[in-house]
Design goal:
Its cofactor is Zn(2+). The protein has 378 residues and is of the alpha/beta class. The protein has 3 domains: 156 residues, no CATH class; 65 residues; 129 residues, CBS-domain. Helix content is 62%, strand content 14%. The strands form 3 sheets. It has a 4-stranded mixed β-sheet. A hairpin with a 2-residue loop joins strand 8 and strand 9. Helix 2 packs parallel to helix 4 and helix 3 runs antiparallel to helix 4. It is elongated and about 80 Å long. It starts with a strand and ends with a helix. The model has no long low-confidence stretch (mean pLDDT 87).
Length: 378
């Protein structure tokens, strides 16, 4: 879903990041406010004033989305759900949950917290707008505050659509989950509803496009595609979690991995190990002690003229929380670590010794077999 993101700040222990795609949205919002909405409703102001109104309107929306997602995150934390952070991207924002909610009640309260916070924030802005009108605040200031009141209510209303994984879709899933006591079934049903809503938004976009509203049509079409994809991926993620539930590193790791001595040269590593075994990472073992690891990414940083003289030990990576894992760790957490670090192979460590290797390829093969067997059993 996301590309490159930039960390902005930390709030209540949550990292707030901005996806590069949000810069596109920020510009489009500022431009549409400054050149469209504000000049239409508040006539007679200067072009510079409209642009300042557009900028502050976009910043207010930025704040509103963070407030919305922060509400989800605080409720999730209250139920013991780990949240990695909040990221704003081109279609809004998302709080990154590492686990599914533990109960239908937790799901419902976490989901409803976002729209409820947006409604409250909209009321606060509406009160400020009323105070500003009575107090004779400048038209530009009242205009931006009034816009923020309305946009927060729109944000709440859109998110309450029963289309998973929108907040309303999560509320629907929590109700179905409570009813049937089956989160997989509830997710499947709510994801299908989300897919249907995605189709409706795409159809609306096509109608808008051919009716002359080109930009609006494109946006509805893109949001519909996003919603369809998000609904499908959310269900697939749950299926993956359920299939791997209870599996630990010890049950899937390779117990006799290929290792490299620290005295081997880079040339020997390439010719005798990389070309022979086709791995991108090799543990470095001296005697029985794990000394670190070396990856093919590191090899590209060593000039070929030095391959015959430079040893593996000289350019090795030390053991760290990025490239090692405990054998008792849940496989779901392994996937999360691999996704975070970009490493497809991790060293399984007990004390200072290498117990094995766990590879993304082996996890995916196990998952494929498990899903096939589960489907056959049904």
């Amino acid at each position: 879903m996301f590309g490159k993101s930039i960390r902005l700040f930390s709030l209540f222990g949550f990292d707030v990041k901005i996806d590069i795609s949000w810069l596109i949205l920020a510009f489009l919002i500022t431009w549409s406010l400054a050149q469209g909405l504000f000049p239409y409703y508040f006539k007679g102001l200067t072009s510079t004033t409209y642009w300042w109104m557009g900028i502050f309107g976009a910043l207010g929306l930025f704040f509103s989305i963070i407030f919305h997602e922060l509400s989800h995150s605080l409720v999730a934390r209250n139920f013991g759900l780990p949240i990695k952070g909040i990221t704003l991207f081109i279609f809004g924002g998302v709080a990154h949950m590492e686990e599914e909610p533990s109960s239908a009640k937790a799901e419902f309260l976490m989901a409803i917290a976002g729209p409820a916070s947006s409604v409250v924030l909209g009321i606060i802005f509406f009160i400020l707008r009323s105070i500003g009108t009575i107090g004779g605040w400048p038209l530009a200031v009242n205009g931006v505050i009034g816009y923020l009141a309305i946009i927060n209510w729109i944000l709440a209303g859109f998110n309450l659509l029963p289309a998973f994984p929108l907040d309303g879709g999560r509320v629907l899933r929590s109700i179905l989950w409570k009813w049937k006591q089956n989160i997989s079934w509830a997710t499947r049903v709510s994801s299908r509803v989300g897919t249907v809503f995605g189709f409706l938004l795409i159809a609306m976009g096509v109608i808008q496009f051919f009716s002359g509203n080109l930009i609006g049509g494109i946006w509805w079409f893109m949001i519909g595609l996003f919603l369809q994809n998000a609904a499908r991926m959310s269900y697939q993620q749950l299926v993956t979690r359920r299939a791997l539930e209870g599996e630990t590193v010890r049950s899937l790791m390779i117990t006799d991995p290929v290792t490299v001595p620290p005295t081997a040269t880079i040339k020997e590593l390439v010719e005798d190990y990389v070309y022979k075994h086709h791995y991108k990472m090799f543990p470095i073992v001296e005697g029985e002690i794990l000394a670190g690891c070396i990856t093919t990414r590191q090899l590209r940083q060593v000039p070929k003229a030095e391959w015959s003289t430079k040893t593996v030990g000289e350019v090795a990576n030390a053991c760290s929380t990025d490239n090692t894992i405990d054998p008792a760790t849940d496989v779901i957490k392994v996937l999360s670590q691999m996704n975070r670090t970009g490493n497809s192979r991790l060293m399984v460590v007990e004390g200072n010794k290498l117990a094995g290797i766990i590879a993304l390829k082996d996890i995916m093969n196990f998952l494929s077999i498990k899903l096939d067997l589960d489907q056959y059993e049904k």
